[in-house]
């Protein structure tokens, strides 16, 4: 099997396209099953965030696997395959490994170095594990990607400024509101992004901070944790009228902030971090309303800080990619080495059978001695070559050694995969 990653992000698609592609949390298990039911897909992980949707898959062929993934995404999103293709990026084998490590370390994030993606990737991996769609290959890839992300944050200062999509959005908001400290803020939504928003606002000295959520219990708990005030969802309109700054990050499928609701609220700066968007498109142009969404952040230089530590993270990623590729190459040679040893044992067994047929006078003890000796000779003869071929296979271009062994000894390995009979490479997240 080979690795394939296919996705769309803020780099390749606008918010309206990402809205259609976004996979709701409750829809992920069904989509995972749909993916692995395709002819060329053996394993699958789905990562869906506010600014990216990606499929990681173990496939039996590039073109077939890509076609399967694209067809499933087109069906799930309702976007015709021809239109969808213009928004997708595709990474295969080594490039897929590199991309996954860049994602986990925050190098591919809208805000370089943000740590939230690490938790989102972990959730995606756990969802695939629970759905039993992550096999040996994706288990290793995801575990190592999480470990690489942890290394990047632990060994460099790439996230020392506490940057996130929220902090980047607040920087943009400050350009419209001026000093944010002391401003009244309203957070709509008490999920992961809502919680991050409340924490970021609190650290920045913005306040008072109010929280409104359809589930009052979650809003109450979040407000208690940060000294904020929970506002009943039925009183949302009143809270909007009193706010200077609104951050909205719900999981609603329809706009929460309609044109009529925002028109009645008066002047506002709204940070819409939800996908699908929480602000109705027809609200654009309302007097006194400024909306900052994912599209705005993607084009803002404030949202793309140049961290001095980026080079150090890139070096970590490069070394970890090579380490993982060595494991993949070693995994490819393992079935071939096993087949060679089996072939040798079969030859010894056949020759012993012929010998014992001719020398019936051998006692059981003598037969055992001869058998042990011959098997030991074969094991010793194969030991050094097989150890060396594993070492060579782990080096760049090492895949040629597996093919050479199969050709020299006429070994037939119809179902050899990169994840067969290989020890784990360690460093679990």
Automatic annotation (TrEMBL):
In this chain the Glutamyl-tRNA reductase N-terminal domain maps to 6-156
List, alphabetically, the Pfam families matched: GlutR_dimer, GlutR_N, Shikimate_DH
Ranges for domain Quinate/shikimate 5-dehydrogenase/glutamyl-tRNA reductase come to 172-298
Question: Which Gene3D superfamilies does the entry mention?
Answer: Glutamyl-tRNA reductase, N-terminal domain, NAD(P)-binding Rossmann-like Domain
Query: GO terms for molecular function, please?
Result: glutamyl-tRNA reductase activity
Question: Where in the sequence is the signal peptide annotated?
Answer: none
Return the EC number. 1.2.1.70
Entry keyword set? NADP, Oxidoreductase, Porphyrin biosynthesis
Site Important for activity: which residues?
99
- Specify the enzyme's EC class, one word: oxidoreductase
Q: What is annotated as the active site? A: 50
Annotated NADP(+) binding sites: 189-194
**Which residues does substrate bind?**
49-52, 109, 114-116, 120
| Catalytic activity, as annotated | (S)-4-amino-5-oxopentanoate + tRNA(Glu) + NADP(+) = L-glutamyl-tRNA(Glu) + NADPH + H(+)
The pathway where this protein functions is: Porphyrin-containing compound metabolism; protoporphyrin-IX biosynthesis; 5-aminolevulinate from L-glutamyl-tRNA(Glu): step 1/2
Q: Which residues form the Tetrapyrrole biosynthesis glutamyl-tRNA reductase dimerisation domain?
A: 313-411
Q: What's written under domain?
A: Possesses an unusual extended V-shaped dimeric structure with each monomer consisting of three distinct domains arranged along a curved 'spinal' alpha-helix. The N-terminal catalytic domain specifically recognizes the glutamate moiety of the substrate. The second domain is the NADPH-binding domain, and the third C-terminal domain is responsible for dimerization.
Extra remark: During catalysis, the active site Cys acts as a nucleophile attacking the alpha-carbonyl group of tRNA-bound glutamate with the formation of a thioester intermediate between enzyme and glutamate, and the concomitant release of tRNA(Glu). The thioester intermediate is finally reduced by direct hydride transfer from NADPH, to form the product GSA.
Quaternary form? Answer: Homodimer.
Q: Which family does it belong to?
A: Belongs to the glutamyl-tRNA reductase family.
UniProt-listed PANTHER family:
GLUTAMYL-TRNA REDUCTASE
Q: What does this protein do?
A: Catalyzes the NADPH-dependent reduction of glutamyl-tRNA(Glu) to glutamate 1-semialdehyde (GSA).
User: What is the protein name for this chain?
Assistant: Glutamyl-tRNA reductase
Species of the source: Paractinoplanes rhizophilus
Q: Which gene encodes it?
A: hemA
